[in-house]
Specification:
- The chain has helices at 2-19, 29-39, 41-72, 87-90, 92-112, 123-131, 134-161, 170-196.
- It is mostly helical.
- It starts with a helix and ends in a 6-residue tail after the last helix.
- The relative contact order is 0.13.
- The model is unreliable at 77-84 (pLDDT under 50).
């Protein structure tokens, strides 16, 4: 769970950096970035394969942990007082599937072209045309809000799983996780909002 989480967190950060190039004054910047990626097809597919394997293993590990938890306590408590936890921690099991559904939709939208017609030579136009649809933008914003919570809890839990835990450092790790999660979510959410507001145009 932790190791695949490291890989996926790295991808999320790299993907955000690529997406933010849509704000460049040079409207061809994000298109040049996309062309650069596709020019290295073997490397691109190697990364895609690694990401796909990481997602499958991440989901598998999540289900295994859930089954272990259920096996350890097959009968529900008559009265259960939860240990205080964050909202993000309590929603991990349902935020994950929604994020997974969004990833599938996102690939169909901006990679396969099953949602809207794509221009293979102009990624900027594809992104803008997609986000001009308020339903697509709304789903994207919802998914990024859930991703923020998922990243926050997952990131600092990952440090614990890898043995990086200490009373002195855990609060700092939690703050780092919060800042990272908010940065990723805010950066991604800003794009559909900027498109809808007319701040990013073709």
């Amino acid at each position: 769970m932790a190791v695949t989480g490291v890989i996926l967190f790295g991808y999320v950060l790299g993907h955000l950096i690529g997406n933010l190039q849509i704000y460049s004054p040079d409207h061809e910047q994000i298109n040049n970035y996309a062309h650069f990626l596709h020019a290295h097809g073997v490397l691109l597919w190697a990364v895609r394969t690694l990401l796909f394997a990481s997602v499958v293993l991440h989901i598998t590990a999540s289900l295994q942990l859930w089954l272990l938890k259920k096996k350890a306590r097959p009968v529900a408590y008559v009265k259960k007082d939860d240990v205080p936890t964050s909202y993000a921690a309590r929603t991990m099991m349902w935020s994950g599937p929604i994020i997974a559904a969004f990833v599938i939709f996102h690939v169909l939208h901006l990679t396969v072209g099953s949602v809207v017609t794509l221009d293979p030579e102009n990624v900027r136009v594809n992104v803008i045309n997609g986000f001009l649809n308020p339903w697509i933008s709304g789903f994207y914003i919802l998914a990024m809000a859930l991703l923020c919570m998922h990243l926050y809890h997952g990131l600092w839990s990952m440090f614990q799983s890898l043995g990086i835990s200490h009373p002195r450092y855990t609060p700092l790790l939690k703050r780092f996780a919060a800042v990272f999660a908010i940065f990723v979510a805010a950066g991604n959410i800003s794009i559909p909002l900027a498109v809808l507001a007319g701040l990013v145009v073709q």
